[in-house]
Structure formats: C-alpha cells, structure tokens
Specification:
The protein is of the alpha/beta class. The protein is built from nine helices and twelve strands. A seven-stranded parallel sheet has the order 8-7-6-11-9-12-10, covered by helices on one side. A five-stranded mixed sheet has the order 1-4-3-5-2, sandwiched between helices.
C-alpha cells in the first residue's frame, strides 16, 4: 500500500518556492518556468476531474478546515502538499477573501491536427485577458472544442484569463502561439471573419455547417493577410450610435447565431420523424 507523502509547512516569505509561486500568481513566471497556478474550488476541482491529481497542492492553514478542501487534500495525498502560513497565503491569493487553495500545474500543450474539420475559434492578437477568457468561455458554451491563438494573444493560462474563463479551459483544446496564416492551409471547413468590408449580414448567412471563427485584435481587428484568406466575411448589423462591438460580445453574437441555426436543423429533424 502506498503511503501518503509528507506534508511541508512554509512560514517564510523568503522561501524560494513561495517566491516562485508568487510570480506565477502575479502572471510573471520565470523565463524557463512553464507552470501555472490555479486558485479556488472551481478551477482546482475542474483540473482534478479532467487531469487527475496535480503535481503540487498549496493550502493556507485556515483553508484546511473548509469542508470542500478535505476531498482535494486526500486526492493529492501521494503528491506534494504544502501548508502555507495564512499571511503568506493571503498575499499569494489573487482573489479578495479567497479560500487560499492552489494547484501548481503545467498546462497541456496539444499537437496541432493534420486537418481541421470541426468548428473552432481562431484568435488573432487578442491582448486583453478579460476578453480572452470570455471568448474561451463563450466558445465552450457554444459547443466548440478547439481554440487556436496567434502570437500576440494574452497567455491563455494566466491567472486573469483563467478567472474570466470560469473553467472553459477544461472544455477546450487550446493551442497557443499558432501561425494562423500557415494553419489556414489545414482547413477543411470555411474560415469566417467579421468585417465591414464586402461582408454579408450575419443573420442572412447560412451557418448550419461548421466553420473556423476568426476574431481579431481589440483595436486593429483581424490582420489584413488573414482577412484575405477568409471564405466568409460577415457583418453584424447594429445601430449607428456605437462604433463597434467589443470582440467578446461580437463573438457571442456570431457563435450563438450559428448554434441557433444548427439547433433548428435538429428540431426540424425530430419533428419530421414524428
């Protein structure tokens, strides 16, 4: 029978491991440190469910008494477990009055597929972490399962993106630092981009087949060379009082219009079979 690993206690802010975790929590890891830090019940449970026990569990002293922490603590019994003094845990936490429970993990790095046949999300230099997390969450909610992020996007597994994504990272296969222009050669589905130039109105477009949805930088939009590769150029009609939609809002409108059309096909098919 395998015995539980010994538990380590840290009470000094000068501890080198603690200082490294603090850099992770603040979104500034060392150049050679691929790890990320997950904080709180939702993200830690999601990792445990999808990936299994993490390499390292860090818990503030007071958090040990929380009812939901016990099962996490036991699930990590054969890995590294660290108890932090409460004042150190409070500094490590990026959430006000957070529970001070953390997984320290290496995020998955999936291989690019040889061909792309399923609907997916493409992001070109989306720099705001809140926007990126919301985009990932929206894509997952709309039923997409892959996201491809260009160089220049915010780090997908950074603390702010993780908080905004609310668990979407575990419903998606996320590819970072992708050359989207080169990747377009692997598409077996249309590439759809939102633009005002020579574009069809979203609600008049047949979106029943899967496509790769391409959304661009908050200020500059999709790069010209990528826009030239789009098979579908789509415009979201809106009132003239506002210049443009936020990229995350635009994506939500497009993805759920497509989902509406696809669901209507399924509903009509069920009606026909009756």
């Amino acid at each position: 029978m395998k015995h539980a690993a010994p538990v380590r206690h840290i009470a000094s802010r000068d501890n080198p491991d603690y200082r490294a975790w603090l850099r992770l929590a603040q979104g500034r890891p060392g150049r050679l440190d691929p790890r990320v830090i997950l904080e709180g019940e939702h993200l830690c449970r999601a990792w445990l469910e999808h990936k299994g026990p993490p390499p390292l569990l860090v818990v503030g002293e007071s958090a040990l008494s929380l009812g939901w922490v016990g099962p996490l603590w036991q699930a990590c019994a054969h890995g590294r477990r660290v108890v932090l003094q409460d004042n150190l845990a409070a500094v490590l936490s990026q959430v006000e009055h957070g529970p001070a429970v953390f997984f320290v993990v290496e995020p998955p790095v999936p291989e690019l597929p040889a061909r792309i046949r399923n609907g997916c999300l493409w992001l070109d230099r989306v720099q705001d972490p809140g926007n990126l997390g919301t985009l990932l969450r929206t894509a997952a909610a709309a039923g997409l399962r892959q996201a491809y992020l260009s160089n220049g996007c915010a780090a997908a597994w950074s603390p702010k993106v993780l908080r905004s994504g609310q668990g979407a990272h575990f419903a998606l296969e996320i590819h970072e630092h992708v050359d989207l222009q080169a990747l377009s050669g692997r598409l077996d589905i249309p590439l759809a981009a939102t633009t005002l130039d020579q574009a069809e109105i979203l609600y008049a477009k047949d979106l029943r087949q899967p496509c790769a949805w391409l959304f661009g930088n908050e200020g500059q939009g999709v790069a010209d060379e990528l826009l030239m590769r789009a098979d579908w150029r789509i415009h979201i009609p809106q009132a003239a009082a506002v210049e443009s939609l936020n990229v995350a809002a635009a994506a939500a409108v497009c993805l759920f219009e497509q989902r509406r059309q696809q669901l209507m096909v399924a509903v009509q098919a069920r009606r026909t079979r009756r």
